[in-house]
Amino acid sequence: MTIKGVLMAGGKGTRLRPITYAIPKPLVPIAGLPCIEYSLRSFHEASIDDVIITTGYKFESLINGLIKQERKGGQKVLFSVEREPAGTAGSVKIIENFLEDTFVVGSADVLADFNILNALQNHKDSGNIATIILTEVEDPTQFGIVETENGKVTKFLEKPTRDQIFSNKVNSGIYILEPAVLRHIPEGIQYDFGRDLFPKLLKEGIVINTYEGKGTWLDTGRPKELILANDLIVSKYGREIRKDSINGKMIMKEEPIGDNYKIEGNCYLGENIKVGKNSNVRNCTIYENVVINENVTLEDSIIFDGCSIGSESHVSKSVIMKNTNIGSKCIVSNSALSSNLNIQNGSRIYDVSLSSETTNNYD
């Protein structure tokens, strides 16, 4: 038996704009790897090496980006491109001829670092045709909440309002399914797993098994979750470094150039980063060829390739896309800035997304 994997990558990532103007959400890097890579590696660790990616929005960029990535252990990736949006379940229905045995479905734009192997065994032991992998969240209003009894779904509600919440266990977007499930998905219309298929199965008396996921899971739908995702991955995979200038958990390609600076907390550091005197960096992801001038404070932020931060500027809880220049004595807080912007000296930017779509590119 060859278990296949399906990764759904058709969404537009609207909540992550302006970042997703430039790059499909599954390719947005988290600690140096595209988000989708964590799901692919999780599949590989469960010996799932035949993977089909369903896509639509910016599919050329997605395919080209994944072709550049080296696959582990000979993992093979195929693509299914939707002509029209088919919904999550509908996108899987399109490829049903490829799914002749048990298969695993995941969301390519969610940071998922689960142990799939244990979930597969639980699914097989249950004897059911569908298993939803669950996770717990503080705010379940953005997800499908699930009520269970003895490991089976008793109630399911997609994106509840505050007064509708009956559980903080949510659908992680990872499913283990038998081909028999596909008979319940209609052809030719948009059809979703959470909104349509699972409530339909419950109405028809079909038992849906559940498994509580073990590992890192986070919906990276907004810039603040993307920042948190980087922090979680560095915390999990980083190496402890204790030096005068660098102190904390680090995934570091190369030690930054400069002296009399401080880098602390959980940080990802790329190559050819220059840091000026008396600058402080805490809990940040900083990619290649970034220049941080003197007396700068960076915290809880992501700085993409080729950016520069002017002296005495303060950037916090923000995402700065490629080749954007921030002048001196600026404050950028809780914001997302697109590529190729020039922010004038002394600017104050709070709680906004700034985009210049005509010059916004990632490559």
Describe the 3D structure:
It is a single chain. The chain is built from seven helices and 31 strands. The protein is of the alpha/beta class and 363 residues long. It has two domains: 4-221, Spore Coat Polysaccharide Biosynthesis Protein SpsA, Chain A; 240-354, 3 Solenoid (UDP N-Acetylglucosamine Acyltransferase, domain 1). Strands 14, 15, 16, 18, 19, 21, 22, 24, 25, 27, 28, 30 and 31 form a 13-stranded mixed sheet that branches. Strand 4 (50-55), helix 3 and strand 5 (76-81) form a beta-alpha-beta unit.
Q: How would you summarize what this structure contains?
A:
This protein is α/β, with parallel strands linked by helices and 363 residues long.
Write the layout of secondary structure elements.
Blueprint: E1 4-9, H1 19-22, E2 29-30, E3 33-34, H2 35-45, E4 50-55, H3 59-67, E5 76-81, H4 88-94, E6 103-107, E7 110-114, H5 116-126, E8 130-136, E9 144-149, E10 152-158, E11 169-177, H6 193-203, E12 209-212, E13 215-219, H7 223-237, E14 239-242, E15 246-252, E16 262-269, E17 274-275, E18 280-282, E19 285-286, E20 291-292, E21 297-299, E22 302-303, E23 308-309, E24 314-316, E25 319-320, E26 325-326, E27 331-333, E28 336-337, E29 342-343, E30 348-350, E31 353-354
Parallel strand pairs: 1-4, 1-6, 4-5, 8-12, 15-16, 16-18, 16-19, 17-20, 18-21, 19-22, 20-23, 21-24, 22-25, 23-26, 24-27, 25-28, 26-29, 27-30, 28-31
Antiparallel strand pairs: 2-3, 6-11, 7-13, 8-11, 9-10, 14-15
